[in-house]
Amino acid sequence: MIGGEKQIMKVMVRNIFKILPGKMTEGMELVQKWMAVASRLLGTSSRGYQPFIGGGDTTRTIIWEIELDSFAAFEALPVKMGADPEMQTLFPKLNVVIDSIDVELYTPIPTM
Questions:
Q1: I need a surface site. Which of 4, 39, 62, 94 has the fewest CB within 10 A?
Q2: Would you say residue 78 has pLDDT above 60?
Q3: Which residue range forms the structural domain that includes residue 92?
Q4: What is the distance between the alpha carbons of residues 109 and 112, in angstroms, rounded to a whole number?
Q5: 67 pLDDT higher than 60
Q6: Is residue 15 part of a domain?
Q7: pLDDT tens across 28-40, in order?
């Protein structure tokens, strides 16, 4: 609580997709569709990134970020996405091109 008011914790979700070798074009297309559906379901925009320099195998990496108004919104995300018919058709296609997915959660640092 700050000033006697309960603060709602915003959450930034970062998904780091590693795409299988030779599947980057297809992976990029599918992740862009994933991002569009997730943005529609959550009523917020998302951002996608592709590293162009860095350690390891960055050429097969796609990063997707979305900011949510609360942790409760993050908890509802899998249920909403799993129930969506468009997302249900994307899941099996993504599974064929994705090597791994890491999910990171961030919260803003409170100002003093």
A1: 4
A2: yes
A3: 11-106
A4: 9
A5: yes
A6: yes
A7: 999 999 889 988 8
